[in-house]
Design goal:
The chain has about 290 residues and is of the alpha/beta class. The protein is built from 11 helices and 9 strands. The strands form 2 sheets. The protein has a 5-stranded parallel β-sheet with strand order 2-3-1-4-5, covered by helices on one side. A 4-stranded parallel β-sheet has the order 7-8-6-9, covered by helices on one side. Helix 2 links the parallel strand 2 (about 25-30) and strand 3. The longest helix has 23 residues, at about 215-240. It is elongated and about 70 Å long.
């Protein structure tokens, strides 16, 4: 039987993940008291043949029980009850925003401030995060992207690396994205904007991509950037980082930055990390000028 403990920060998506696991055949139990975990596990493993996949949701609502969780999990391993831990995390500012949007109360907030409750929760859950088999930062994940990652691990049984990379193209005239860890300026490259037949196209179109990437500057920049990312990521992982947002900007975020982001993504397919590409400003010129 495959046994998964789903835990992490409140507001990071635990309820959504349990629903996703339920959809792929897991028997899910949320907020079970810690003291009952060994009994439930023994019942399912030893006495129930019909259930092959079990997922338990454990979070800060189980506050008193969390002090016994480490000991409970060690005893389960010793008794031959294997388990996996999925830890869902998110940036504190993102969590505060989610609580404001949903108007729900944080389990530790009561009459206090949400941001203080989130930091207290992060401290309480640090021990279980260290033992997690999978860590997902959902700060910038759409629901469908989260489902893809869950399916990879628990449906397709693919090997999962606890590191998520976002390549984000943008236009400097719309501002640098606040969440970027690394920002690169590609405004030194030849600009398709001044080619009449390319002006209304984007870096997602072959003609624009080919125009940008055939320049020697673009080829060399792409190679050097990929080489640097390969060097950086293992060092980030060593320091405990679990996601990286790489911003690539040009003037309007439509031609050069999109082309370079797509080129970098092609290279990075060979790396064993979760990857997504976003083009933040690719449609903004059209909307601003009333183009279709």
């Amino acid at each position: 039987m495959r046994f998964v403990i789903v835990t992490g920060m409140s507001g990071a998506g635990k309820s959504s993940v349990l629903k996703m696991l339920e959809d792929i055949g897991y028997f899910c139990v949320d907020n079970l008291p810690v003291k009952l975990i060994p009994k439930l596990t023994k019942m399912f493993i030893c006495e129930t043949d019909s259930i092959e996949k079990l997922a338990l949701g454990i979070d800060i609502r189980n506050l008193e029980g969390l002090s016994h969780l480490d000991k409970t999990l060690n005893e389960m391993r010793e008794n031959g009850y294997p388990y996996e831990i999925l830890f869902l995390d998110a940036d504190s500012n993102v969590l505060v925003k989610r609580y404001k949007e949903t108007r729900r109360n944080h389990p530790l907030a009561l009459q206090g401030r949400v941001d203080k409750a989130i930091e207290a929760e992060r401290e309480e859950l640090q021990f279980i995060k260290k033992h997690a088999d999978y860590i997902m930062d959902t700060s910038h994940m759409l629901v469908r992207e989260l489902k893809q990652e869950i399916d990879k691990i628990f449906l397709e049984n693919e090997e999962y690396q606890n590191f998520f990379i976002t390549i984000l193209s943008f236009g400097f005239k719309y501002g640098i994205p606040a969440d970027c860890d690394l920002v690169f300026d590609v405004r030194f490259l030849p600009n398709p904007y001044y080619i009449p037949e390319l002006k209304k196209k984007t870096g997602n179109d072959f003609e624009v991509y080919d125009y940008v990437m055939k320049s020697e500057q673009a080829k060399e920049f792409d190679e050097k950037l990929f080489d640097m990312i390969k060097f950086l990521v293992p060092n980030y992982i060593t320091e405990g980082k679990n996601q990286l947002v790489i911003g690539i900007g040009c003037t309007g975020g439509k031609h050069r930055s999109v082309s370079l982001a797509n080129a970098l993504a092609k290279h990075m397919q060979e790396l064993p990390y979760s990857l997504k590409v976003e083009h933040r400003d690719i449609e903004k010129d059209a909307k601003t000028k009333g183009e279709n």
